[in-house]
Amino acid sequence: MLKPIHRVNCLPALAACQRLMQRFVLWLCDANVHGTDVTEANLRAQMPSTIEGEWLCVLVAVDQRSTTKTKKLLEDAKAIADLPAQEKQGLKQWVQAVANLSQHFTAAPPAALPIDAPNGWKKQGRQWTSFKALMVAFYEEGLRDGLPYQSNGTPTADTTLRVTYKQFEREFRQAHRLDPHPDAREVCVLCGGELKLPAVDHWVGKAAFPLLAVCADNLLPICGECNEAPQKGQRPVHADGNFTDWFHPYHRHSSGALRLRYDEVAFAIRVDSNDPAHMLKVSNLDTLLNLGERWTREFKAEYRRVQREVEKLRKKQPGLTLDEVRLRLTDYRDRLSDAEPNVDVHRIVAETVLTPARLSAL
Ligand SMILES: [Zn+2]
After folding, report:
1. How far apart are the CA of 5 and the centre of ligand 1, in A?
2. CA-CA distances (angstroms) from residue 243 to 142, 212, 281, 294?
């Protein structure tokens, strides 16, 4: 989160889908709705528009390869509708507490996000797995094939206008390109490294919070290394459901609060903040993504590369003076570009090799 993170055009479509998910699950939780009521006709009738109702039917009920084969998701929806009234109430409250995610990132967040499943459900139990499968389907299948909305959140039956996973990823990467040239390297918005093997990350994990699987505030493409364990993976971005001590990519960005510092004794990069108010958030982000360790690795590799360049230069020009080496390194520093991956780390390498002690040791 070194660089600003922007919202992209199609986010209203994701927000509309989030509302649809919520409406669907709250309908299933209605005390008057039972498993037998979960029919295609009712799904069509209960959603805000015919387009959304039709789309939900295909998502939940009808196998797209066959007009008669129903999906397991229909059984999951019926299982939720057949829950005892008290459990429906518990799920409803859980959904309402989780749904309005953005308020958890305000200056004074409300009570913590519930980190356990509702009603004391076991994560392996039928109730939770049914609810999770239903919600995650909106992301896995729904967003992959296209949500029933165009970018601005208006329902559409035109499949060419529907917002897809690919469109979201493309728009996000386009908006965050530091060098607009098509052949330029892209930079990961979280670690500042190269955007290799990018994947759309759920900032708040979808395994624990399936209701947020298509949440506009919760999705961002990041590099494979940031996304995988031992880095982020499924690790939580809150302290027991409380977000006070955590940054958020869209709502509480770390821009300006995070600082890289060179530790001369350890020959390492430390992740720091000038502002005591952000210290804990910086430390949590560092731990979540192993930033200090990864940036130290990059620092050492780049330092070694510069060292090799100087060695090569000296072989070619044996009479090279220290001043001439300094000039070459100053040139290296001045040519570093903000549009390149790891530029913040490389700037520290440049500053370090230009100190008199390091320079004479090269
Ligand atoms: Zn990254």
Report:
1. 13
2. 29, 15, 10, 25
Ligand 1 center to residue 151 CA distance, Å?
A: 27
Q: How many angstroms separate the alpha carbon of residue 1 from the centre of ligand 1?
A: 9
CA of 187 to the centre of ligand 1 (A): 8
Query: Confidence band (pLDDT; 50, 70, 90) for 68?
Result: low
Q: Cα 58 vs. chain centroid, distance in angstroms?
A: 28
Distances (CA, A) of 215 to 94, 128, 170: 16, 19, 17
Written as one letter, the residue type at 337 is: S
- Between the CA of 298 and the centroid of ligand 1 the distance, in Å, is 13
| Portion of the chain with pLDDT greater than 90, in percent | 81
pLDDT for 63 equals 63
The contacts of residue 138 (CB under 8 Å, 6+ apart) are 17, 20, 21, 59, 213, 214
The Å distance, Cα 190 to ligand 1 centre, comes to 5
**For residues 203 and 233, is the Cβ–Cβ distance under 8 A?**
no
Tell me 260's DSSP state. E
Predicted confidence (pLDDT) per residue in 17-38, tens digit: 999 999 999 999 999 999 999 9
Q: How far apart, in whole angstroms, are the C-alpha atoms of residue 74 and residue 129?
A: 13
Which tens digit of pLDDT belongs to each residue from 173-195?
A: 999 999 999 999 999 999 999 99
Residues 6+ apart with CB under 8 A from 86: 119
- Which one, of 166, 148, 193, lies nearest residue 18 by Cα? 148
Q: Which secondary structure element, helix H or strand E, spans residue 268, and what is its range?
A: strand 268-272
- Per-residue tokens: 284: 């949590």
Overall pTM > 0.90 = yes
The three-state secondary structure class of 244 is coil
